[in-house]
Amino acid sequence: PLFGREGGSAVIGGAAVQRAILVVDADADHRAVLRRTLPGNGSRVVGEANDPEEAMRQAAMTSPDVAIVAAELGQGDGIYLAGRLATEHGIPAVLLTPTADSLAIARAVQAGMMGILVKPVDPPTLRATLEVAVCRFQEILALRREAEALRWVPRERSGSAGEDGAAVYGRDGSGRFPLRADADGDRWARD
Question: What are the angstrom distances between the C-alpha of 104 and each of 55, 111, 134?
């Protein structure tokens, strides 16, 4: 069996969160178990696939919050698929595997997998893993957007901080990047 006991709804910040899930597994019985179990965890299955190409089509059509991807797919590699889902569709993936050997873990980390579930999975672990995967993926995307925005912060052509025209920036106590006035009083605002 994939799952043990029953679980409840995901609750974030006091409000129930229903996550849209894409299930990718070559085994129809495993997909059926997930399809039955996920609604009890406050999630809904929005798409199912048994191979990588169908998974990519389902991802484009359904825009899930997260994908559960079996490590072994009949016509492809689940770890490689997870990387494609993240880069091509912005969808985090959690690997579903029968064992957690060192090689599988290393490959999953390298591919950007947001979590690993080892069968059998109990519903509370499933719920927690999916929620953490979605939240961590959103944080990573926000950091990437912030890094890209900082590449475009106006800078003095040949100056340094404190010289006329140099934009001064850096993290404040809350971890944000506020822009402050430079030596000659210029203040750069966010778009």
Answer: 21, 10, 21
Residue 50: closest CA among 71, 74, 26: 26
Give, for 133, the enclosing helix (H) or strand (E).
Answer: helix 123-151
- Who contacts 82 (Cβ-Cβ below 8 Å, separation ≥6)? 67, 69, 93, 95, 108, 111, 112, 113
**DSSP, res 48:** E
Retrieve residue 162's tokens.
């404190």
**Strand (E) positions, 13-141?**
15-16, 19-24, 43-49, 66-70, 72-73, 76-77, 93-97, 115-118
Q: How many Å apart are CA 142 and CA 146, to the nearest integer?
A: 6
Phi/psi at 67 (nearest 5 deg)? Answer: -115, 140
pLDDT tens-digit series, residues 96-152: 988 888 887 888 888 778 899 888 888 888 888 898 898 888 888 888 888 887 776
Q: Check: CB of residue 21 under 8 Å from CB of residue 46.
A: yes
Beta carbons of 25 and 18 less than 8 angstroms apart = no
Looking at per-residue pLDDT, the higher value among 75 and 9 belongs to: 75
